[in-house]
Write the structure tokens for this entry.
Amino acid sequence: MRRAKITGIGHSVPDRVVTNADLEKLMDTSDEWITERSGIKERHHVDESTSASDLAIEASTIALDSAGMNPEDVDLVIFCTISSDYFFPGGAVQIQEKLGMKNIGAFDLRAACSGFVYGLSVADQFIRTGAHDTILLIGAEVQSVALEFDTDHRDMAVLFGDGAGALILQTSDDDSGVLSTHLHSDGKHLQDLWLPAPGSKYKPFMSKKLIDEGLHTPYMNGREVYKNAVTRFPEVIHEALTHNGIALEDVALVIPHQANLRISQAVARRMGIGMDKIYSNIHKYGNTTAASIPIAMSEAFAEGLFKSSDNIILAAFGAGFTWGSAAIRW
Ligand code: UT7
């Protein structure tokens, strides 16, 4: 049976490191509060001249090199992001053009923190049907430009960072690759984590009034996100295991969206597994939304935490709410 196999991987983060101590100078917060509530010690923020497509291109170039491929070998680009350079069109076309790819299909996918798992599912379906053979799948975000670095917005400002990760997906010719993906949503939680403006809800869709009302900055009901995340993560991880008849003991690594260390620890407790089985690099990058899973996969692979034939599980939860998982045999 055809399925998608990962043949290239890479990630990139901006050079500028913003520590908790740096944030203490901008708002009423503390290293102690941030570390205790989220596990984050530092995150990377872009400089004036760097946008999400730039980070995406850096990660894509590394992924292509690791696959031993050229940009013209790719036949579809899927760019998972909620922070594309412009309101429209999506950033996938910038990647196609700047990397010198052929006139292939290129589109953005907006499913926030679940974006990369949603994107992997879409890519896998295209490969399974035979519609495409070689897909560049990217998760990249520049969240720092949407945040307000003051005490009124400190709950969000300390959590998010910028970065990108990319995979090359090709047709598997053995029993390795994406075994299954599982996608879910519950839109009644739309306003628990959202950035209301600009949008077609407003006439005009962007105005000084919207900015004066603070609708251009993201809002999060942290408690509600936390409560739902610690239930949905274990649920959707179990769904992937059950679907494939894989026992937890036979999983080399669970790679969750890096939302918050406390969420990952609660998931580990609920599932009865140690934190050695749940990958975490949130202390270095914060929450990079759709980029967090491919960055984590890329680092975990480089650290030798899984190898050929190992089972790994990806799991994500975020705005929408949306959540999902993927079972992969490497
Ligand atoms: O991809 C999904 C992304 N989102 C998440 O993963 C977030 C999930 N939620 C959480 O992890 C937690 O809800 C937070 C870490 C966001 C917040 O932790 P909490 O224990 O739920 O804190 P809280 O919002 O109830 O706030 C407790 C206190 C408040 O002060 P008062 O009212 O008790 O005086 C906040 O104003 O902490 C205050 N606070 C802060 N203090 C220092 C909120 N943000 C900060 C901050 N520094 N950055």
